[in-house]
Every structure is written in C-alpha cells, then in structure tokens.
C-alpha cells in the first residue's frame, strides 16, 4: 500500500480526530528523536491534549529540563520570534503563494512579449487581430512591446559598438 499525501485540515469527525492523535504523537516524537540523534541538537516536545489531563513530554520530564531552561533563558522577543499559530501559518503561506503567482504572471508576460517582439521583427510589421484586446490593454501591450524592442535594439547597438572597438567595455564584462 503506497503512502499518499495527507491534506492538512482540521479533522471534523471527533472520533476520527481522537483515533489519529496517538499516531500523530508517535510520529512527532519519532521526528524529534531523529533530529536529536542525527543533528545532535537538544530537542524536546510537549503535547497538551484535550483527551488527556497531563501533557506528554519527550524525551522525558527529566530529559526535557535542559532544553526548557535554555528556552526560558532566551529573551521574550527571541522566544516568540518564529512562533505562530495555524492561522498565521496559513496566512503566511497564502502571502508567499500570491507573491509567487505575481512573479510567474510577470515572467509569463515578459516571455509572451519577447516572443511577440521576435515574431514582429521577423515579419517586419505589427499585425493586430481585431477584437482580441480592449483599447487600454492594447495600448499597454504596445507600450510594453515598444519598450522591449527599444531595450533589445539598444543592447544590440551597444554590442556592435563594443565589437567595433568604440567602447571602453571589454567583451566578457557585464553590460
């Protein structure tokens, strides 16, 4: 039986949530042990459960105390520096995903404009299909395309100037 990716969401069914808790605790304690063993880092875990009045501690209450003292010795701001709840975690992931989406949209737009620029340069004329763009979008696209064509031509002219020896910049240096 293959393992499948678990959807991270609150388990609504109370009995299913209660049955999953011990398995998840064992997995968490196993990961803490692996970090402790493989990396040589003092690690510990405390789990408070609504089903058990006493918290579970790994490796043990006595073994956890040095890590606890180290944590308590940290300044308040350092203790809470990287701590966040599930809502903050999800919000952080959403923000990162939005930034990545904007970056990908920008990259795709630049690639499309570059392809259009090369195609238009090969044809030698601009051909616009009627009804594909609204006028403001068309004007923005043409302005962006014009800017890219100017940048491309400027870089080519500069390269020609360098190759002809009319510039102080050597070949291989950053343009």
TrEMBL record:
Classification lineage: Eukaryota, Viridiplantae, Streptophyta, Embryophyta, Tracheophyta
CDD domains the record matches: MADS_SRF_like
Gene3D superfamilies cross-referenced by the UniProt entry: Transcription factor, MADS-box
Any one cellular-component term (Gene Ontology): nucleus
Protein name (record): Agamous-like MADS-box protein AGL80
Chain ranges of the MADS-box domain: 1-49
GO terms for MF: cis-regulatory region sequence-specific DNA binding; DNA-binding transcription factor activity, RNA polymerase II-specific; protein dimerization activity
Zinc among keywords: no
Source organism superkingdom: Eukaryota
Keywords in alphabetical order: DNA-binding, Nucleus, Transcription, Transcription regulation
DNA-binding among keywords: yes
Compartments, record wording: Nucleus
A Pfam family: SRF-TF
GO biological process: positive regulation of transcription by RNA polymerase II
